[in-house]
Structures are given as C-alpha cells and as structure tokens.
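lol forgot to send this yesterday, sorry. struct tokens for the thing we talked abt
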C-alpha cells in the first residue's frame, strides 16, 4: 500500500506539475511569436509613412495642376482620358488607402504638360524651365545660329530658348530661339517674355507667352486651354517683346 500510495502521490504530483509546464511552454512560444511579428511588421510601418508622404505630394500636385488649368479635378481626369472617379476618389480619401496608379499620373502629366510633381509656377529642382537665356544653354548650336544671334542682338535685345510647348500653335516649338527686345512696348497679339514669381516660394521663372491685355496666356495644341495669368507688374511682369524666331535643325 505505501508503494501504491507513493505511486499515487507521484502521479498526483505529475497531475499538478504538468499543467504548469504546459503553460510555461505556451507562454514562451507566445512571447517568441509576438517578438517575431513585431520585428516582421516594423519595416511596413516605415513604408506606410513613406507612402503617405508620397500620396500627399501627389494630391498637392494634382490639385495645383487642376487650379492652374482652371478645371475641376473631375474635368481634369476626363480631359486626360480617364474616369473622373479615378482622381476624385483619390483626392477625397482621408484614410490613405485609396491610391492612384503611375499610369494615371502619366496621363495627367501628358495632358497638362507638367511632368509629375512639377508644380505650375514653380521651377522645382530637376524640372525644366519654360525658357532659358541663350548664353546659359549648354547645348552647342551650329555656327550659323550663333552668328544669327550675334547679328540680331544689341543693347536691350536678348535671345531666349523655348523649352516647352506653351506656344506650339503659334509655330514656336521647343528648341526655337526667340529674340526679345526689352525696349519694345507690348501690344495685343505679341509674343512676350514675362517674369512670373510664385508668391508662396518666392521663386521666379521666365516664360514665353501670348499677350492679350491684361493677360499672358499659352496657345498650344498639345496643352490645350490653360488659365491665363494677369499682368500686374508684381507677380507677373513683361520683360520684352519677340521680334523674331530662329530655328536650329533638330
């Protein structure tokens, strides 16, 4: 009987000890699993932060382009060849869960003429200006072009290279050299060189535009209608009037 009793006592001890051992094992496994998932998911939280910032930049760019072209976001989307909801759902989303594809961004860029994240009125780093002074252009033009420039320029007359498509409907194409006379007074229908200052960033860019008092505007088949800028001699001021164009061979 004592042996039986001892065996019963041992069995009883095992009955008591076993559940605690199992709980310890479960606790250790649970803690290890928790550490694993925390480490595994940590990088995704940083990716989400980067994605949120990217979405914010994209929303600001789309909204700026729509304002500049005097279009609602839905009309901008339709004009770019996509469903209006593609843009409006993305802009109105507050959860950061609705995204917009790169293909849609490229469509908006192609229609507007502004590359992704190139803000209208802002010459952001890495983006091409609308026009640059001839002497600052690194491209090596043929000698006859340089001679034409030398013959055409004098006091208060400069040459500017058209970089964008803002005046392609007037026959002024990217790469054309436009001669500007700052002594000439602008009248309706003239092509002018204007200085535009972004009041938010204080950044200034030079643009070639059609002058229709009191506005300067684009005249482009590629870009379509865009919002005109009012000449106020503060934010927008006219520098000179075009007296001719030189086209180098492409």
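and heres what i got for the seq, position by position
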């Amino acid at each position: 009987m004592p042996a039986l009793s001892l065996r019963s006592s041992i069995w009883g001890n095992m009955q008591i000890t076993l559940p605690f051992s199992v709980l310890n094992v479960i606790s250790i496994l649970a803690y290890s699993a928790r550490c694993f998932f925390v480490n595994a998911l940590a990088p995704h939280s940083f990716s989400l932060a980067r994605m949120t910032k990217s979405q914010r930049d994209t929303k600001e760019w789309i909204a700026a382009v729509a304002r500049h072209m005097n279009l609602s976001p839905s009309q901008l989307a339709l004009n770019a060849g996509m469903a209006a909801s593609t843009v409006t759902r993305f802009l109105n989303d507050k959860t950061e869960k609705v995204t917009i594809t790169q293909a849609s961004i490229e469509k908006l860029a192609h229609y507007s003429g502004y590359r992704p994240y190139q803000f209208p009125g802002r010459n952001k780093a890495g983006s091409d200006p609308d026009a640059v002074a001839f002497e600052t252009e690194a491209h090596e033009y043929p000698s006859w072009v340089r001679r034409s420039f030398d013959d055409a320029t004098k006091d208060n007359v400069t040459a500017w290279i058209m970089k964008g498509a803002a005046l392609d409907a007037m026959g002024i194409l990217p790469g054309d050299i436009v001669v500007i006379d700052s002594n000439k007074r602008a009248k309706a229908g003239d092509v002018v060189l204007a200085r535009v200052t972004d009041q938010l960033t204080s950044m200034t860019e030079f643009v070639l535009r059609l002058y229709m008092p009191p506005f300067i505007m684009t005249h482009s088949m590629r870009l379509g209608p865009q919002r005109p800028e009012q000449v106020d001699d503060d934010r927008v001021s006219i520098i000179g009037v075009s007296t001719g164009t030189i086209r180098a061979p492409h």
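The beta strands are 131-133, 157-162, 177-181, 191-197, 204-212, 215-217, 229-230, 236-246. anyway ping me if u want another try
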